[in-house]
Hints:
Layout: H1 4-14, E1 18-20, H2 21-30, H3 35-38, H4 51-54, H5 56-74, E2 78-83, H6 89-97, H7 103-106, E3 108-113, H8 117-126, E4 135-138, E5 149-154, E6 163-168, E7 171-180, E8 185-192, H9 196-202, E9 210-213, H10 215-231, E10 233-242, E11 252-255, E12 258-260, E13 270-272, E14 275-276, H11 277-286, E15 290-296, H12 297-303, H13 306-316, H14 322-333, E16 342-349
Parallel strand pairs: 2-3, 2-5, 3-4, 5-10, 10-14
Antiparallel strand pairs: 1-7, 6-7, 6-9, 7-8, 10-16, 11-12, 11-13, 15-16
Amino acid sequence: MLSKRKINKVKLLNNKKNFRLDKFIEMALFGNNGYYLRKKPIGRKFDFVTSPEISQMFGEIIGVYLVYHWKEKINSKFNLIELGPGNGTLFKDIERTAKILPNFFENANVNLIEINKELRKIQVKNLNYFKQSKIRWSKALNFTSKLPSIIYSNEFFDCFPVRQFLHDNNNWFERYVKFNEKENKYYSINKRVISKKILDYLNKYKRQKIYEVSFSRNKYFEKICKYLKKNRGICILIDYGYNEKIKNFTLQAIYNHKKTSIFENIGQQDISSHVNFDELIEIAKQNKLQINEFVSQRDFLIKYGILERKKKLLTKNSNLNKNLLDEEVDRLINVDRMGKLFNFLVVSNL
Length: 350
């Protein structure tokens, strides 16, 4: 829980008795005392472990995929952009794999998009073997180059703030957040939606009873799609999400690998939601981009050779722990673990 001083600061910033859920999430994650601006979130000792941290094979499969598409479709100077590089592990595995075709990185303008100062320090340290002059760090995605681009992300789009709506008795209600002065804590309330613009948007979803949407996520992805449409390139988005109607809201908070309330440990825990891939696919189609892949993590990794890669690693190095490699791959592709929960969306204009 925030200190009383920090809670008062939040209230002054909003200057309202209650405020929208997405504004609360934005404050908790990206405000002055926000989770993503000041904490090291990734790793076994922290709040969550991502696929690149589980096995080098994850990044190697993606590396081969990127190199192939660059060689076949671009084969010239290009922008290589990673959104939210975390500890830099995925980039490191991709870079090592890309050595099979040295021209790949010789032609790459590398840009890592990272707002977390602590993670940027870790990235610089972990990537110090790489020519630092080849890497540019940015806090925001700003397209200035007209070169074709390869853009990729893993567990990046799930952190965008969402709004939650409930349809009941022919009315739409939106979830808001209110602060209880007496109990010194936040709680949620539902407010009837009166905005004609929002009602017009929601009416096509009233059969679903509930609807969760991140307008900022959609806007960010649309920016990428418009750029690719104009300048060519490919975007690989890896995240947990869905492409069907949801029966329950997906917003969740994680603190030290355990699920908690979004109103606990404010500014000290991760808050995320499942990505609505249907919306992103529709945005890509509206911008005339091809949908190269939309498959589960399991299907993508198997299709592009993770099982063969595991066998090759064991053949080349008999000292490797087979049980450990089996566990890593199982965690990545098992349908009861990460295999079905995570999806790969690949869109392109190549």
